């Protein structure tokens, strides 16, 4: 298997777009990078030149740009949705479930913000505005909280629970190379999701189309990962509860982080595994009916997210009946 997720993303499944300025082709870009570098209305720098993205023509696979002399920058706000589709192997403890899973990651543009070099917001474009979403079917490892455990954490942490659970996810993911051996941080990613049975889960997944069995090993190493995460946060020398980028803060996003709330969740995870042998189940390939996250519908023509019950795609106006 190829450990280079970027190569896999480029070669299988991820459609390539051609970036064009009039008749001049500037290069090719896959959807994963298109979302980040050339969303519609975005400012794109390439070979010392500055361009503005005018349009994205999905049917032709083209990103149309024109030269621009602005010194502003645009920042995309990308939302990630993780749908867990199938269990492969699971380790059931009385209050949590750890499992290797098949899953699908959908990333789409929520908004794009343009700022001056001084940081003043010039404009914000809401929604995807014609920028395609990126879909990645892959595999990984999830940790799902049983309902009583989630209820107890929510009653202890209140509104701090969701941010704390996200911090658990980021810290555990950042420590994954300590158990897997050296691997490139670009080869895997992580996120939180809610399963269709309502359970909150955190997921580590391979950044390669269809998966390359990289993050599977997290399942057997979860007790060690949680213990290392606790040591890292409890031992961090930063002096506020909000933490720092070496412990619970997210360098890419400004969450309301809390070291103490994150430790409450991690200690609960640790206690739920301590001294217990999980019930191991190999699900094989016989459980396709186990769609454990409700599927989001996407437009078959343009890939835009569809609103439940809508008759037409809000991006390209294709009738949604064709989708089925
Ligand atoms: Zn810290
Ligand atoms: Zn559409």
Protein architecture, described:
- The protein has a domain at about 80-110 and about 135-280.
- It contains 7 helices and 12 strands.
- The chain has helices at about 5-10, 30-35, 145-155, 160-175, 175-180, 220-235, 260-275; strands spanning about 15-20, 25-30, 45, 50-55, 60-65, 75-90, 95-115, 120-125, 135-145, 190-195, 200-205, 280.
- The strands form 2 sheets. Strands 6, 7, 8, 9, 10, 11 and 12 form a 7-stranded antiparallel beta sheet that branches.
- Helix 4 crosses helix 7 (about 260-275) and helix 6 runs antiparallel to helix 7.
- It is globular.
- Bound molecules: zinc ion (2 copies).
- One zinc ion binds near residues 299, 301, 302, 315 and 316.
Q: What is the average of the pLDDT values? A: 88
Would you identify the regions where 5 or more consecutive residues have pLDDT less than 50? 1-12
Q: Helical segment tally?
A: 7
Encode the helix/strand succession as letters: HEEHEEEEEEEHHHEEHHE
Unique bound compounds = zinc ion
Counting helices, strands and paired strands, the structural category is alpha+beta
Output the radius of gyration: 21 Å
Q: What is the CA-CA span between the terminal residues?
A: 34 Å
Q: How would a textbook summarize the main sheet? A: 7 strands, antiparallel
* Portion in helices: 10-25%
Number of strands: 12
């Amino acid at each position: 298997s190829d450990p280079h997720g970027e190569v896999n993303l480029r070669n299988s499944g991820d459609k390539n777009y051609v970036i064009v300025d009039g008749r001049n082709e500037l290069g090719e870009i896959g959807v994963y990078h298109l979302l980040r570098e050339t969303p519609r209305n975005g400012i794109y720098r390439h070979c010392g030149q500055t361009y503005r993205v005018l349009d994205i023509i999905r049917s032709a696979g083209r990103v149309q740009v024109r030269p621009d002399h602005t010194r502003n920058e645009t920042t995309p706000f990308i939302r990630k949705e993780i749908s867990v589709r199938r269990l492969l192997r699971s380790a059931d403890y009385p209050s949590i479930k750890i499992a290797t899973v098949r899953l699908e990651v959908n990333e789409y543009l929520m908004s794009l913000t343009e700022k001056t070099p001084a940081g003043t917001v010039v404009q914000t474009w809401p929604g995807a505005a014609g920028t395609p979403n990126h879909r990645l079917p892959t595999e990984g490892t999830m940790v799902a909280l049983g309902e009583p455990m989630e209820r107890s954490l929510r009653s202890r942490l209140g509104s701090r629970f969701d941010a704390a659970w996200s911090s658990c996810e980021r810290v555990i993911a950042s420590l994954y190379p300590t158990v897997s051996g050296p691997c490139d941080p670009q080869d895997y990613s992580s996120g939180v999701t809610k399963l269709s049975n309502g359970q909150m889960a955190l997921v580590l997944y391979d950044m390669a189309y269809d998966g390359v069995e990289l993050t599977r090993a997290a399942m057997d190493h979860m007790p060690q990962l949680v213990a290392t995460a606790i040591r890292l946060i409890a031992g961090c020398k930063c002096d506020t509860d909000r933490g720092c980028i070496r412990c619970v803060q997210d360098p890419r996003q400004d969450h309301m982080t809390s070291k103490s709330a994150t430790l409450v969740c991690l200690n609960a995870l640790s206690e739920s595994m301590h001294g217990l042998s999980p019930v191991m189940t190999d699900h094989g390939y016989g459980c396709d009916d186990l769609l454990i996250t409700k599927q989001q519908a996407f437009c078959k023509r343009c890939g835009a997210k569809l609103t439940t019950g809508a008759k037409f795609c809000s991006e390209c106006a294709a009738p949604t009946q064709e989708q089925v």
